[in-house]
Each structure stands twice: as C-alpha cells, then as structure tokens.
Automatic annotation (TrEMBL):
Highest taxon of the lineage: Eukaryota
AIG1-type G domain ranges (all copies): 26-170
Source species of the chain: Rhizoctonia solani AG-3 Rhs1AP
A GO MF label: GTP binding
Listed name of the protein: 50S ribosome-binding GTPase
Keywords in alphabetical order: Coiled coil, Nucleotide-binding
Recorded coiled-coil stretches: 418-452
Length: 496
C-alpha cells in the first residue's frame, strides 16, 4: 500500500489510512459486548478515514451527513450502518451492532441475533470482515463474551471463518498489556488474526480539547502531545496492516448468511415433521394390530366381518409444505394453524410473541407493552404461549390415513373362511411390518437432521439454534410420556 503523509491544521504530521487496492468496497461487521470499546473504535476508524490528525480526533458516531459521515439507523434492526467514501471513490461500510450482553440481560441473545441478521439482510450485499471487539485486559472468556460468540456462531456459515478477526482494545499496539488467553476461545477462533490498540481517541479524550487550543510551541513542550502523536502513529500503522488483511479476504455474500438462517428453520420444521410422522405411524400400527385381533374374533364367531369392513379410517395430522411462512402451534395435541401466511420470517418464538398479530393485546403488539413477556404471552387463537409456536413454511392438515384405508379396502373381498381370514391377517401384518420399518427410518432421520443443523453454523459447540429443536423435542416428549406404549419413540427423543 502507498502511504500518504500530510499535515493537519495544527501543524502536526499525520498519516492517512490507506484503503486496500484490490477492493473498491469494504464492508465490516463490528460485534462486541457492552464496554468493549466498539463504538469508540468505530469513531476512530471514521476519524482516520477522513484523514484527521492526532489533534483533530473527535467523536464521530453522532455527526450528520453534512460532516462527512452519513449515519443510517434502522428502527427495525437497531443496527447502525456508517458508509464512508474515500477521496478516490472507494467505499467503506461499517455495520455497528448494539452492545451485546448489556444491562437488560443476556436473555435477549436471540433478539440480538435477529437484529444482526436483519441488518445484514437489509443493508449490505457482502461482508469482508467480522470483527470481534474485545477488552484485551480481560484474561479469559467471560460469560458475556461467550454469549457474544454464541450469537456470532449461530448466525454465520463456516465459510466466514477466515474472515473473522479480533481487535483487542485497551492494550498497546505491540501487545504489551494483552492479558486475554486465546486458548479460552472456541477451537474455531483460537487461531484468528488479531490486532491490539489503545484507542488514542479514548485514551486522550479529556486531554484533546485542551490541546486543540494550545499553541504549537506549547505542544512541542508537552509530554502528553508527544505521547498522543506516537500513539496515533502506532495506531495508524496497526490499522493499515488490518486493512491489508481485509483486502486479502474473500468477500462473503450475505446471501449465504440469509440462506443459513432459512436453512436452520427449514431443518427444524423437518425435524418436527419427523417426530409427528413417528407419532402417526405408532398410532396406525396400533390400529392395524387391533384389526388383526378382531379378525381372530371373526374367525371365532365373536364378531362379524362387516363390523371391521364398515369402520371409518382414523384421521391423522400432517405438515404440508407452503410457499409462505406461517405461525403454527407445536403444543402437544393442538395442531393449530394460528396465523397462516404470517410472513414475518421470524426464527425466535420470543420475536413471534412480540410481532405476530395473534399475540396482540387489545390490538397492540406485545413488544410495545411494558413488562409484557414475549415468550409467555398467549396466542389469541389457541391460547398457548408464544414459546410453543414456530414460524415455518408448513401448515397442519388433517387427513384420513391412506394406509388404514388401503387395509380396509383389502378386506372388502375377504370372506369368513379360515383361509380368507388368514390371508387378510397376513396382508395387514405386512403393512404393520412396513410401518415398523418406516418408524425405524424416521428415527434415523432425527440424528441425521440434528447433525445437519450442527454442521451448518460456524461452530457446532455454539449452535444456539439447536436449543429451539431441543424445545421442540421436549414438547413432543411430554405428549409421548402421556401415551401408552411409547417407549420406543421416547428412546430416540431422549438420545437427542
């Protein structure tokens, strides 16, 4: 990179950050826990991109478009996009996310994930780097930082691993004062590239206003001014290397992130469909076994064949694929299509409770009502809590069992002779064997689908959205526990 030297209005020598040469657009996502220095880092970047010298540094995150920083704030995502165009026309986009694990509590982790996802979806088309901003003086992975990493890992595909870097704040650019132990990070991030800086904008915040008013002679004799200029130069050199690293990264299309988000929801809906199929097959097996027993009673003249032939086929609930997203209830035995064509595209049940119209109170969205819990608010259609609902491209549909209907049709030509009844029993027993085979295949699908979910995200150890599937299993397990002869089905649920 070519280095440009200039002088600021106060006479101090300054170095302008050099934008990468291979890329004309750079988009970075900044993520960090509250108090990590992320907002100050954003402000520093903008100062340096504008070419501000050491005595011109000032807070930039609240300036308007006329001052050179066009701030765009989305009320739906609560993520701020800072687009900046360099004098030679290159574009630098900074997506600044809200501080994670803030004072409102870490229970809002999926809500933060939703905000980041929507910002990525709505604001940018590619991402060149995901920068985790961390207080370098903290020795190990804190609960809040662990939460931040979990949010990241559930959102990004594995392809983005090489685009993740770490900015350690509050330590010297040469690494002096860095206490953080990389071994405390998840395995996927232990070898991530990192940079250290002690942000001069923060370090000299109280001192800068006085220095701006000082004469050049006063600055020449001021030890603080000397320290500021040195720290400024070290910071610019560090960030130039960081920009070189970004220039070498392959740009990750945000389409991949969006597809991952939808894929996780799709796999979960297939998981639910599999557990539903196991329940249906188990029920049908019992119904057909009952027919086999009753055919024995017919042979012993204890009942007539017509009593069996005239039975109605039991109805079963199935999930039918749809083009739109729908809010459905997963509570055992509910099968309610609470809001067909909801199309909110919300992954988290808590977000459904805050946004979907079936959870409104007196026409007011639950998220706007103070002290209302988005997870426990009840659906106006089925009266179950939002936590028991999902937004799937699926709807419930009740249908007569085709397998049972086929079994009855096979009995229509049967006669009461021993040979005919034996043939009818053998035919139904074959259907039972086929059902048992289907159940076993469905059981194998469950761990396979869980593995598929785990393998999608950056780190399976942090695949937070698997919790949603676990909640799903718990719902179905309660139903199976209440049902007789469900030990086999419970065993496969318990394994997951």
């Amino acid at each position: 990179m070519t280095e440009t030297i200039a002088s600021d209005s106060a006479g101090a020598t300054r170095k302008i950050l050099q934008f990468p040469k291979k890329k004309r657009v750079l988009t970075i996502l900044l993520v960090g826990e509250t108090g990590s220095g992320k907002t100050a880092f954003t402000s520093l970047l903008v100062n340096l991109l504008r070419g501000n010298g050491p005595f011109e540094l000032e807070d930039q995150h609240n300036v308007d478009a006329e001052s050179g920083l066009n701030k765009t704030h989305s009320q739906t995502t609560e993520v701020t996009l800072y687009p900046f165009t360099t004098p030679d026309g290159a574009k630098f986009q900074i997506l600044d996310t809200p501080g994670l694990a803030d004072t409102r509590g870490m229970g809002d982790d999926n809500r933060h994930r939703e905000k980041i996802y929507r910002a990525v979806k709505e604001r940018v088309t590619t991402i060149d780097g995901v920068m985790l901003v961390v207080n370098g003086r903290v020795e190990r992975l804190t609960a809040a930082l662990s939460y931040t990493l979990e949010t990241l890992a559930t959102l990004f595909p594995r392809a983005i691993k090489d685009n993740i870097g770490i900015v350690f704040t509050k330590v010297c650019t040469n690494g002096r004062g860095l206490n953080f132990q990389m071994e405390s990070l998840p395995a996927d991030l232990q070898t991530a590239r990192y940079w250290c800086l002690d942000n001069p904008l923060s370090l000299y915040k109280a001192y800068l206003p006085r220095m701006r008013q000082a004469t050049e002679a006063q600055r020449q004799t001021s030890s603080q001014a000397t320290f500021l200029k040195k720290d400024y130069a070290d910071t610019v050199e560090c960030l130039d290397k960081w920009l070189e690293w970004l220039d070498e990264r392959g740009s990750i299309p945000t389409k991949a992130i969006i597809e991952l988000y939808h894929k996780s929801t799709e796999i979960e809906s297939r998981l639910f469909g599999t557990t539903l199929a196991i329940e249906n097959l188990s029920r049908l097996r019992k119904e057909l076994q009952s027919i086999v027993r009753d055919l024995g009673a017919v042979q012993e003249k204890q009942m007539t064949l017509a009593d069996i032939q005239n039975r109605e086929s039991p109805k079963i609930w199935e999930l039918v694929e749809t083009a739109d997203y729908n809010t459905i209830c997963l509570s055992p035995s509910c099968h309610s299509n609470c809001h067909p064509s909801c199309n909110l595209d919300l992954y988290d049940p808590k977000d459904l409770g805050g946004w979907c119209k079936v959870f409104k109170t007196l026409g007011v969205p639950n998220r706007l009502i103070p002290f209302k819990n988005d997870s426990t608010v009840r659906c106006s259609k089925c009266m179950h809590e939002a936590a028991e609902h999902r937004n799937y491209r699926r709807l419930y549909e009740e249908r007569p069992s085709k397998i049972y209907q086929e079994a009855l049709q096979g009995l229509q030509a049967a006669k009461t002779t021993e040979e005919s009844l034996k043939g009818a029993r053998d035919s139904i027993k074959r259907k039972i064997e086929k059902i048992e085979q289907d159940i076993e295949e469905s059981k194998q699908d469950i761990p396979r689908l869980v593995d598929e979910m785990n393998n999608l995200s950056l780190s399976p150890n942090y695949a937070g959205y698997i919790r949603s599937a676990i909640q799903l299993f718990e719902l179905r397990k309660r139903q199976l526990e209440a049902s007789a002869e469900s030990d086999e089905e419970l065993s496969v649920i318990d394994k997951e």
